[in-house]
Amino acid sequence: MPNFIQENFQFPEQFFVTGTDTNVGKTVTSAMLTLGLNATYWKPIQSGLDTITDTEYVKQVTGLDDTHFLPERFRLNEPLSPHASAAIDGVEIHLSDFELPKTTNHSHLIVEGAGGLMVPLNDRHYIIDLIKYFELPVCLVSRSALGTINHTLLSLAQLRRENIPVLGVIINGKKNPGNRAAIEHYGQVPILGEVDSLEAIDPETLKGAYDRLEIHR
Question: Are 31 and 206 within 8 A, CB to CB?
């Protein structure tokens, strides 16, 4: 099996974390990378305010101080697709509403999306359009379980169709060597690492998961 990871791979100073679907472990992966890289974390759009927000969750599980976190541009009340939640709140989301921070307190900036690539922001733009607008490379998070091959290959195809650089894939969940091999082979993409199911999510387990990524081998 070929190894697509470039020798001495390093994460760029700014990149976007997106997922192949909702609940694939995108926020846990973002927390792991924020802690491992001592980075700044930014969630531009938060949909759902009834429970803990993603920013609050990442802050809680990493134990990092406030200097590592930027405020969301949109805080939408309902846990729905941004276009639907924004409509309920009576607001409109435009790409021009967003601006990447020119400077941060830390060497890396991790931007986390909402849902998958084709989640609508408004009546004509999607998360993938926001990625293009930011001109950021992507770290794609996928699940390890059944169905991941199709979802991951479709996401990779869409990113490449839009000429968005793909850093690689991080696979979340109980290890599945067959699915990993298929994603790597058919997707022609680096597997940056696999994050096995974590019994507890805290600074120690997240740092351990980061240290076990393929990029460190």
Answer: yes
Q: Is residue 133 part of a domain?
A: yes
Asked if residue 8 is part of any domain, the answer here is no
- State the pLDDT at residue 2: 57
Mean pLDDT by 10 residues, the chain (217 residues): 73 97 94 98 96 96 97 96 97 97 91 96 98 98 96 98 98 96 97 92 96 85
pLDDT value of position 16: 98
Which helix (H) or strand (E) is 82 found in, with range?
A: helix 82-89
Concatenating the DSSP letter of every residue in 89-149 gives HT----GGG----S--SSS-EEEEEEEETT-BSSSS-BHHHHHHHHT--EEEEEESSTTHH
Contact criterion met (CB below 8 Å) for 196 and 160 = no
Region of 207 on the Ramachandran plot (φ > 0 left; ψ -120 to 50 alpha; else beta):
alpha
Inter-helix orientation angle 26-36/54-62, to 10°: 50
The reported pTM is 0.95
**From 26, 43, 174, 207, the catalytic residue:** 43
Q: What CATH code is carried by the domain that includes residue 161?
A: 3.40.50.300
End-to-end Cα distance, the chain: 16
Any catalytic annotation for residue 102? no
